[in-house]
Records
---
Amino acid sequence: MPPAILPTIAVTSGEPAGIGPEICLRLFERALGTLPAHLLVLADRELMAERAQVVNFHGQLRDWTPGLPAAPGTLDILHSPLVITSHPGQLDPANSPYVLHLLDRAIEGCRSGAFAAMVTAPVHKGVINDAGVGFTGHTEYLAEKTATPRVVMMLVGGGLRVALATTHLPLKDVSAAVTQESLEQTLRILHADLGRKYGISSPRILVAGLNPHAGEGGYLGREEIEVITPVLDRLRAEGMALIGPLPADTMFTPPLLAQGDCVLAMYHDQGLTALKYASFGNGINVTLGLPIIRTSVDHGTALELAGTGRADPGSLFVAVDQAIEMVQRAGLSR
């Protein structure tokens, strides 16, 4: 019988001056025939060969072509050339088009069915903006490139799933961004993808308030009364299991967490401070609502570690593992 066709997982190597190339090389530790997937790293071939010496890489780097089966002891590279030579820890805006091309190529492959999922190593938002490209993050970029009107950022780790009603916004803009329409859309996406991607048939979602003490009955703000509660009541009437709005300072206590499958926080640091404390080094980012499967590390480029071989690949390993699980749940074969 011919060997089974393994799903191809595209892993973008991210900012070349950061730790992305090195942690992608460490995937070799997971790619020795033990995974039910073919891992493909999108990167500059020469860059990966240089960084391979840093991480004491003992395998073979091979140029990938469509249809090429996985091989023991081999990490496949889909070559994309750097604009200029990259040095560990030294950002250069000239390579920003390269970083974005890696993302575009992975998105294209996922949309065409050539790749079953994409996993992203960290990029550096600042240097991309320095290149004259407005870039607020992977999540927003993927939404734009797939023409998805709304996506939801969810981080997973430490036994927690934490989704965000708003993502990379200044704190002063959060209240205006939390509208009944946006919150309802977020909850619908979250509810649906907890079923599709995690197999939770009737997800229970803990919903945070925006203000201290969830508004204290209106004395500390009226967003809970005028925005959040009406949406929760409307969706509960449709059968969704929604608990809240809850005071954020007690929402992450064990008795409350035991009642839910996921937390929805109103803004970035409200939810992610607790999650990163619980899962530092092994948390991941999942983009919900996309027409493709995408997971990511939950950390940055760590320029100070680039070129040292000391970067921890744990988050990338988890991101790959969860992408494979989602592919299997979705029944995708390529």
Note: The chain has two domains: 1-148+290-334, 151-281.
---
Amino acid sequence: MNKRQSHLKFSAMHDNQFQKLLDGFNLAWSGYRKVRKGVKKHLSRHMQELNCPGFQAYLDLITQNDAVRQECMLRMTVSISRFFRDRKLWVGLEQDILPGLIKTQLRRLRIWSVGCARGEEVYSLKIIWDRLRQTYTHLPVLEITGTDKHSGYIDKARAGVYATSSLKEVPPEMREHYFDIRRNGHRFDVKAFVKADIDWKVQDIFAELPGSGFNIIFLRNNLLTYYNESLKEEGLSRVVKALTPNGWLIVGSREKMPATASNFQRHHSIPWAYRWEG
């Protein structure tokens, strides 16, 4: 079978076949349902690279070969983000959550972006922090860590180069101040002072954590969307251990905390921001 035939067979894969892959990784159908077409394309290319004659051969190879299994998992990673996604959150951070932490006179403020993908969330934080300098004379030292299990995403985050589609919620004056605009406004390079002092790491939260004592952890649109209940609870438990008492956990605007999650107080105006009272 040639590569084109393999591609066609894989593209026509039934949903129950795709479900087998999800089940093998403890991933949730509900999270992948709307994005499965794109994920199948990534997996199709992987099948072609491995010269697999069909779905069952691919499934067998994933079961037998740890390296292939790991690469398959990376191909199933979904990255849908942009600067200041869910604008209400960023307004709340700038006007309430961050000022509240600043007023506690912390010497340093530690923030972790879990599953940071290509870095839009991390750079949005750096921009908000820079804007707060206009209001506060003395700010704590800011330490931001961005982690993702996909090394390619981390490379792109470090590079800090984005298309117009990533900046649709960034007003023109902010684009000019925080980005170098290239290619007649079709490419935006994050300026060096925004890129400075960010710790990027290739990490999987189920294997290791980047430390502890974080004042804010962003866990948005990944663990609680794409994993089955058992892994949601395990992953959340690990992440929460890295929070400082009265620290904030931020999840996606359409995500729900597991029923077993305890000691969390929801923010009064941002329903997907939770203060941990542990």
Note: The beta strands are 108-114, 141-148, 161-163, 179-182, 187-190, 198-202, 214-219, 243-251, 264-266, 273-276.
